[in-house]
Amino acid sequence: MTKTTIATAPIEGQKPGTSGLRKKTRVFMDEHYLENFVQAMFDGIGGVEGKVLVVGGDGRFHNDVATQTILAMAAANGAARAIVGQNALLSTPAASNLIRTMQTDGGVILSASHNPGGIDEDFGIKFNMPNGGPAPEGVTNAIFERTKTLDSYHIWQGDPVDLSQIGVTKLGDMQVNIVDPVAAYVDLMQSLFDFPAIRAMIAGGVDVRFDAMCAITGPYGRAILEDALGAPAGTVTHGTPLPDFGGMHPDPNPTWAHELMAEMMGDDAPGFGAASDGDGDRNMIVGPNCYVSPSDSLAVIAANAHLAPGYKDGLKGVARSMPTSAAVDRVAEAMGLQCYETPTGWKFFGNLMDDGRVSLCGEESFGTGSDHVREKDGVWAVLMWLNIMAATGESVPQIMADHWARFGRNYYSRHDFEAIESEKADVLMSALRASLAGLAGQSFGPLTVAAADDYAYLDPVDGSRSEKQGVRVVFEGGARFVVRLSGTGTSGATLRLYLEKLDTEQLNLDPQAALADVIAAAEDVIGIKAHTGRTAPDVIT
Ligand code: VG1
Ligand code: CO
Known about the structure:
With 541 residues, the chain is of the alpha/beta class. The chain contains 18 helices and 27 strands. The chain folds into three domains: 2-181, Alpha-D-Glucose-1,6-Bisphosphate, subunit A, domain 3 (Alpha-D-Glucose-1,6-Bisphosphate, Chain A, domain 3), CATH 3.40.120.10; 185-407, Alpha-D-Glucose-1,6-Bisphosphate, subunit A, domain 3 (Alpha-D-Glucose-1,6-Bisphosphate, Chain A, domain 3), CATH 3.40.120; 409-540, TATA-Binding Protein (2-Layer Sandwich), CATH 3.30.310. The protein binds alpha-D-glucose-1-phosphate-6-vanadate and cobalt (II) ion. Cobalt (II) ion binds at residues 113-114, 277-279, 281-282.
């Protein structure tokens, strides 16, 4: 085996988005594409000489081949050690945990998360920092800048490492530790939640369904729910990770997790249902005939986290992404907790957690997590819910009814318009931004605009500033909508429209009906139909 330096040239468009670089798999398979980005990543963090890195991914098509490339490049760039999940598998939260507990210099996570996998679908890669969290914008910008000047990369030429056996091996001078991807994560969950109480609840007849959507959480779900908590075999469905996710779209929302939804909305539904995404950081919670919106799930967890042993002393504070509903704000206010608002993307929560300001974070996009790692964590949220149910003896519908009775209900929905021509989406956003200054005071149906702006964030910990993080229009009385373009897609543009309205009296309306005024006003202000020709969203959550 030899270390070689390969001549290359900059490749355009290697700009990380909301969560790393995501492109079509075939793009990543192009000559030098992955290698260029990995070298830029290593250079962007100041080199990997003598460093220790965690490497793993969600098992989608190309995960295995890309892992070998990254290991060969880490070795040639002088890394001291790589810690790799067996067969190159690691859920995103499990990778975050290993980065932290093994005190490494960071990690490379291969995933396009909730995007479909396969040779004709999506692939992705991102760098996580020594704190276990996604690289902040300063670092991703440095990586992107480096992609523009790169003229060579270093790689070991030789046989691939056998990643099928747990143990220690070598690649050139670099040590490679192949670890069980699940074990340390199970220990962490056991340290946070009351496993005996959850076990007793399941033994007492609460039937659990966990849809892993043929993605990474299958082995985690089985080890925890079926082995440690005694749920019967079959509790975890679609539990074997497959390179193409069995053709499923591993995004845990009512549209894509429709098999689970059908079961949960049917007669004889299980007592608790959940699904996770491609890389295991998202979750959807469903009770019998009771879908829990992610914003509500965050609020319920904020109100009840103290029931879980790992959080018995209460939360330090909470944070939500800007488009996430203010349901959690109401809980924070009642409990005397500080509540922070950040731009979309988990990378913005890291500083708040590292600084000890918050211990619970969440996004409306089915992401919830705590400071046990620095990523959102799907299985963690499932266990938190089961722990709350075991501690209160209440069902999911009861928990929701109690919560809304106490705090009111922030009716919430997100409408996604997918695969819009990028140019049309850009024109729409520019026109919307240009109209903001004149919106205040204007009425749309029964709603009058109180304020409209383009959200910018000043990080209270490091003083960094992020601009243009979403247009928000707030109406008198507090109803609002938010518009932004997705930063995780790989073809065209996806427009996300987030809608919200608080009601403290009528608690059992259909969200789309409750939000009808806001939906109509949003269309009047934005003109989605006029700009794109679209009359209805592709996905509603
Ligand atoms: C989406 C979500 C965002 C989430 C991101 C990564 O980003 O809206 O809340 O943090 O995906 O999630 P965007 O830019 O498409 O709206 V995952 O599960 O991909 O790591
Ligand atoms: Co994900």
